[in-house]
């Protein structure tokens, strides 16, 4: 039976070669795994930067990567809708780590605003959750590759320190926009909002990319008080500007695709989001 590592189990007997293959699904997962595995392993990214994870279809070469992978790391909670179609093709010897599942993140999980029966998958935008994900990934790496345990431990401590620091600086940076109603082109920052006490004004598409209905659009158009349009860098913004034409707008990258390869990727992503949203402050 394939080993789905929602809870870590026995890895002591797992052998690791120099070409140990780690496959990650989306940019924020790849960035975090690469940060933690730096100096020992280089993870592959399946969904390329700039592609929409909700609409992406795997190419044959990417399916082959999954078939030969030793470790597959996913965000989970519907962030990879293609996974169910390829899960049975994965080697029985592969280990699959689904970061958005398991008891360690359950207390942070929140439902999608438009569908309370479904968990919002964008958990990496909460620095506390990013830290938990980092710890889970490191435990996996250490167990599979004990020879590089020291490297993984050092990388983890750097990641956790950077996340703690950016949480403090971002809280101060975001203080001026606490009363600004944030209207999103895509509802991908609910965890970030909750972590930093921000105000949600509406979204033109839900956490899985489904367009908002007429009632939601009408509510956004009728907003009173300060508002700001938040645009994903990969999305068109014409609709939002038409609804709240007098409001400022900012662009940001919730997936961190433009940040891949930066040191302390997880903290750099939180800092990027905070800096962009801080521009929503009333003049």
Topology:
Layout: E1 3-4, E2 22-24, H1 27-37, E3 44-45, H2 60-68, E4 71-74, H3 83-86, E5 95-98, H4 103-106, H5 127-144, H6 149-174, E6 181-184, H7 190-196, E7 199-203, H8 214-221, E8 227-232, H9 238-243, E9 249-252, H10 265-278
Helix pairs in contact: 1-5, 5-6, 6-10
Question: How would you describe this structure to a colleague?
Answer:
The longest helix is centred in the middle third of the chain and has 26 residues, at 149-174. Helix 5 packs antiparallel against helix 6 (149-174). The protein is 38% helix and 12% strand. The chain contains 10 helices and 9 strands. It is globular. With 283 residues, the chain is an alpha/beta fold. Strands 1-5-4-2-3 form a 5-stranded parallel β-sheet, covered by helices on one side. The protein has a 4-stranded parallel β-sheet with strand order 7-6-8-9, with helices on both faces.
